[in-house]
Structures are given as structure tokens and as C-alpha cells.
User: Fold this.
Amino acid sequence: MSIILENINYVYMAKTPYEKTAIKNINIEIKHGEFVGIIGHTGSGKSTLLQHLNGLLKPTSGMVSVDGQDINLNGEDAQRAKRSVGMVFQYPEHQLFEETVYDDIAFGPRNIGIKEDEVEARVKKAMDFVGLDYDQFAKRTPFQLSGGQMRRVAIAGVIALEPAYLILDEPSAGLDPRGRDEIFGQIIKLYKNTGITVVLVSHNMEDVARMANRLIVMNGGEISLDGSPIEIFRDCQAELKEAGVDVPPLTLLMNKFNQCGLDVDHTVIAMDAAVETILAAVRRR
Amino acid sequence: MLADIMLGQYFPGKSVIHNLDPRTKIISIILFISSIFLAENYQAYVIIAIFIGIIITLADIPLIMILRSLKPLWIIIILTLLVHIFTTPGTIIYVLGPVTVTQEGLRQGLLMSLRLVFLIVISSLLTFTTSPVALTDGIERLLKPLKKIGFPAHELAMMMTIALRFIPTLLEETDRIMKAQVARGADFTSGNLFRRARNMIPLLVPLFISAFRRADELATAMEARCYRGGDQRTRMKQLKITGCDWAAFGIILLIIGILIVVRISVR
Assistant:
């Protein structure tokens, strides 16, 4: 059970003066139950890569398979495999169109032929996951909600499809720190409660570091690093710099402490844990 | 899905033709297009063809791009050819059921459809070698004299610039919304016309909302930077007529002269 990308290449606007290779030689396997963070600076090919995961872009060459099924073939099986990959785009609130929050979230389930009573159950469940009260919001028009709420409606619309893999492209872009924490809290809750596989794209290192158990760093359309966040932050700072992404400030601080001879745990990611390890190290002296 | 659409058809380059002032190109093309209508015989057509060939070579545009620009209109070209072949009276050379092919018709049809091809190729050469922004700049400057009679030249050009500027943005937006809805199981490609129109709602509603939002934001941004129309605005890129432009005008006038001579002398 995994999404496998084999030798994926993608070229935009082939055979015109604007031709551009967006990603090249991508080989990854996203296993069931992983929480994968993908980072890279603008234009590194993150979004292009994401769109291959559920067949929105067909690779110029290479193969994408979901749970053993090549998703770029025709036919029912490929369709079903694609549907098991839910995709939340950047600024997903821009795709809302229905008159009520309920109808918008129900759009996906209805499209794939779910019966109306189950649709209702799914909408309720999805709204619960994103922290929107059903009685309060279901009958309201999505266009009068706040930005953060609209985004949650849009994410609920994808969750209601009950995908086995959930892909999120910059889900926190344009939100204030509080809205960001809420969205991420809900994603983590969803991940822990349902065992859904999450692929999260962000250029905020801290967010990714905090949540993901696997980190993929992209640079110039290629994968430059792939491993656990802690290892990557510890061992590959030069590569990270080259890829144009920053090590989280906390990790930088911890590394500085280590260099100065204070024996702190440099793998900590949360602020509380950092405070503790510094205190412990100071006391040991 | 829509990412591969060519925007306008500007083909970036650094050729002599690219570097001409847009005004020169617009005026020359208007002159040249009208002179094409002077051509009535094969000799004139050969001259025009050679001239267009030289411009294509100078502009360094691949032939395949030129042919591609003919694609949307080839039906009209073929129709023109057929209508002339079958309806012109004259010496009958072939009978095909109820219709007849005449020598004059064949000649007329060929010349007319060739004329169409020339018109399309020469006008697409303008858009191939001139960026949309340069083009609107040129149009604005050319329409400027009309301001005296109250024609809103600057406003028109500004609207064109903004429209052009937002074509790629809106295409990108359309592409993204389409993908987002497809990922939610929307279907934009199957069903009958009515169904298909209905299926466009999830695409059109968000697209309009975002277009209006963008218009709003742009208007605010323009006002915040004290935009008050065209009076006394200066430009970053000043248009400048150079020796090359005068040479281009000279060549165009020469060609027109030759075409007039050919028309009078060859009967």
C-alpha cells in the first residue's frame, strides 16, 4: 500500500520557446501511514510533483502507481486509485462555489455517487474534523465566512471524499499564526485518528519539522534530500542552504549551544522540549 | 490542462523585425495589407510572397509557427477556394455533376485564397515579433491625435494592457480551479451540451469571484499609487523611431510602388 513514483519527468510547454523542465528523475515511494513533508523554495517543482500524485498532470515520462495501480491508464481501476488520493490545493477557499457550506462539502461525495444519507454523515464527520460546528455552519453561505473558516470548509470538502492519502499544498498560506496552528492541529488530529497518509508541502521549515516523520527537500526539480527531519537538520545543513530553505531557528540555536560546549539535545523540535533540555544541560554543569 | 496554451503568440527574439518600433510595424502592416489588394496577377503575388518570405527569415520565426497561425482559419481558406472555383463563369474545363469548374474560377480561387493566406501570415508576423505590451503602447501613441476629439486613447490602451496582463493569470486560475474540482470528482468533459453547461458552474462561480476580487485589488493598488489617467504620465520605455524604422518605411513604400507598377503594366 503506497504511492510509487518511478523516473518521473515533466516538461511544461514542450516544443515552444517557453519549454521548461519542471521535475526530473523523481523516484519516491510514499508508504501508507507516513506523514511526509515536502519543502523547497519557489519554483523547485513541489507543486508539479504533487499534481502527479493523483493524475492531474501526466508525467512526460515515467510511471505513477497508487496501491499497485498505474493511475495514468484508462478505466475504472485507475479512476478508483486516483480517487483514493485527496488533494487540497493552495488557497483552496478559492474553489468554493455552492450556496451553502453543506452543499459545497457534499459536492465531492455526490460526484462519486455516494447516497444522500451517507453524504450527510460524511459532511458531519468532515466538518467535525476541521472544527466547524455543523448546526452553526452547515446552512450558511461559505462566502460570508472568514478566510480561515472558508479554508476549513474547502479542506472538509476533500476530507469528505475519505481519501486514503491526503495531499496538502501550503495549507497555511495567508493565515495568521493562530489560524495556522488550528489548521495544523486539525491535520495532526486527522492523521492520528484515522491513520490517513499525509503529504504536506510547505516552505515553512518549522511547521514541517514539527509534524512530518519524513522530509523530502526539493531543489531545481530534483529531490536533493530524503530522510527524517531530525537527521536532515543535523547532517545536511549545507545541502539545505543550497536548496534555499532554512533550518528551523530552534535547531540552529541548539547546534550553536553544542558548538559552544553546552550539551543540549539538538534534535528537539518543540519549544517546551528545548527549554527543558537547555535547563537540564545548564544544571549538569 | 490549460497550461500549454500559447499566450497571444509573441515569439521572443532579437531580430531586426523584433526591434522595430511597434508604431512602424503597425503602420507598415496596414500599408502592406492594403497593397495586397492591389495585386491581381501572378507576378504581383510572387513579389508579395518573396517579400513575406524575407520578413519571416529576418524575424527568425520557425516555419512551423507560421503554419500553426493558419490553423484556425484553414476552413475559410478552403471554402474561399471552392466557392470561387465553382461559381465563377468562364471557360469550362471540367464538369462535376451539376457544377462546373472554369479556368477563370480556378485562377480566381487560387489568388483569393492565397491573398487570405498572405493577410493572415503578415498580421501574425506582427504579433509574433511584438510583445503585447509594446503593441498596446504603439496603439496608444498612434491614437493619441484622436484625443483632441475626445477619444479616450490612453484609457483604451490601459484597458487593453490590463486585459492582456490578466489573461495568463486567469488561465492559471481556471486551470487550478478546474484541477481542484476534478480532484473532487467534477466532470467537465462528458455529457450533452446542457449537462456540460451545468457542470461548468463549479468552475465559473469561483472564477468570477476571483476575477472581481482581482479587479478590486488592482483598482485599489492603482489608486494607492495615485493613478489618474494618462495626462502627464511618463513612460519607462520610451518609444523611439530610429534609422531602422525609416528604412522599413522606405522598403514598404518601395514594395507598394512596385506593386502599383506591376498592376499598371502587366495586364
